[in-house]
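Quick one: structure for this chain?
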Amino acid sequence: MGIKIEKVVLREIRLPLVHFFETSFGRTYERRILLVEVVQDGISGWGEVTCGENPFYNEEWTDAAWLLLKHYIVPPVLKRPLPSADCVAELSAHIRGHRMARGGLEAAVWDLEARLKNVPLWKHIGGGARKEIPCGVSIGIQDSIPQLLKKIETEVNAGYQRIKIKIKPGWDVNVIREVRKEFPSIKMMADANSAYTLADADHLRRLDEFYLMMIEQPLAHDDIIDHAQLQPKLETPICLDECIRSAHHAEQAIALGACKIINIKLGRVGGFLEARRVHDVCKAAGIPVWCGGMLESGIGRAHNVALSTLPNFVLPGDVSASKRYWSRDIIEPEVEVSPSGAITVRDEAGLGYAVNSAYIKEITVREETID
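Got it. Here's what it folds into:
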């Protein structure tokens, strides 16, 4: 069964977070999210562009992604026969960077194809290694250590299997020390989002005493070599995030010994095709992976659930419950986490969740159909 997309609908929605989320880049109160709907024979597939509102995590941001989709990414896929969703990525491969914009369309086509075949998305991408996804949470920088401790207590009581704490210079060693004192046995990791340099190696080594699962992306977003110099200086495993945009980057990082763990974000690598390639490279090398998050709505969250069923996603990811971020999500039912800290994988066709079109219409601030 081939694909022939009749039209693509771009929408920007606004979703206020139930609590601000702060990283070393800054503080976010509201998400501007681009949704991509692809339509064939009255059936819709849905994708989400996971970039931020500003070009701080990478070069992408909401307004640029809209223009890239409208003028460069969508037109090549319209009204032409596509043998499968596997073919979509190559139609925008000539565009340098902007993988989140490209991945938003690609993910939508995977969802469409799964719906046309009447199979769950996780099965369509070759997943199914597990029917429950182990979940962790990412906790942003807070206004005080007591506030952070209270939030961690809430998430631990909710059953989450791993706690990730955002760090930056001035909010790192002393903060982690207080958390470890209060929670001596939880699985914990620190995420720096490129806030340090190699000159900070001695300072980062102080984190070794807290037996963290990993420290995520401590150095520059595009520097694998410095991470390769840092990893031997630390007992704590380094996990790479921003550095890994392709399977080739993963191969390079592993060959250089730059990390012991890799975070795979669907948007960062440009969609399911490249995510599976990164996964396979890591699996062959014995490097465990986990699924990172970008404050996605339910559509992006459902994609992450499907991705996390691939066999080498052996560590708890950032795929958590809808209610942690949104007072109301755009899918039904909302993503829920069990008291044991897991999400049950659904068997319905495509995403496995119904898209709440009426609510999306309410919160849409711009919309454009390309046909």
